[in-house]
Amino acid sequence: MKARYMIMSLVLTAGLVLGMSAKAYANSPQLSVDAKSAVLLEPETGKILFEKNPDERLSPASVTKVMTMYLIYQALEQGRIKLDDVVTVSDHAARMGGSQIYLEPMEKQSVRDLLKAVVIASANDAAVALAEFIGGSEESFVDMMNQTAKDLELTNSQFKNACGLDSDGHYMSARDIAVLTKELINRHPEVFDYTGVWMDSITHHTARGSSEFGLTNTNKLIKWYNGATGLKTGSTSQALYCLSGTATRDNLSLVAVVLASPSPAVRFQEVMKMFDYGFANYKLVAGDEPGMVAGAVRVTKGQTDIIPVKIGTRVSAVVPKGAAGAVTSETRLDRAVSAPVSAGQKLGEVHYKYGDMELGCSDVVAANDIAKASFFDTLKMMHKHWFK
Fold first, then answer.
1. Using one digit for the tens of pLDDT, what is the confidence trace for 221-272?
2. What is the rounded CA–CA span in Å between residue 291 and residue 52?
3. Is 122 a catalytic residue?
4. Domain annotation for the chain: domains and CATH numbers
5. What is the pTM for the complete model shown?
């Protein structure tokens, strides 16, 4: 930034060592996982804490639905669909087989209930019905899945269907699944409204009448593990047993992925082991919260001569527990800004360090708009100044 800065420093917290490389985090010898591929990731920073064959392309089974869910929530956010929209089930969707809620051709269901069936019960027929509703056809929806994978730089993912049934050329890596899960829960935390539900139900509406159908969560960690919040299981004869799990304790969230685990019990056991390892060894440290007042900047040629500034973005880091040291922050503000000023306009930065190591910086932004002073505004301020 070219403008001069006013600089303020303070000690943020203590007890942190941040010099450990990403490789050292990921290759810890303290953890072994009985699965062909595995990744443990912290979703706020994207830091990988453990990995095993993270980029191997494997069949993901119904963990595929993490992408399907992501696109459903994107469509809801963008207003392209609504939860109360009614979906007419096609012959194709009703024939999916595997994990399903036994939808019938021409049956009508709300987006809300189909989404619930996908997230809680991993229903293939519901996933495809929603894919067709959003994309016009499952094929078009799969194109959206593959484009989104490119947009998110998931370089070891390719989709052939919306539900995860085994298909040649349909694959994901554990790293890609962990990153995609991170994107889903960060951008659409409302997914937790369903991922943590153990049992629920929907109502079938067919020509024969209405009947209730029970849903039970396929993710047993919701019952078994303290802090579990979700997210998606999967299994086929080719993929074996897979899981992308999420959990939160003491302000630290984790994503744990296993692919090709040998049994359902081992799948859950290994994810719990990864969670235990993460919670026992790491903690999340964050800078100031966005919106916190960070000082004020002088305004020239404006309707007021001072503008308050606030933290605009957040810096966080995953650090080992029990390490020694101190994190410091340094606030650098523009000495002055010329009106007009827009709310959110960058007027400085807060830099966070551990020793000489830069953790990152938060933008400091204008808290509100300030219009350029008119001739009469200038006269009023001059008059106020003279008689003060």
1. 999 999 999 999 999 999 999 999 999 999 999 999 999 999 999 999 999 9
2. 39
3. yes
4. 5-18+287-387 (2.60.410.10), 31-281 (3.40.710.10)
5. 0.85
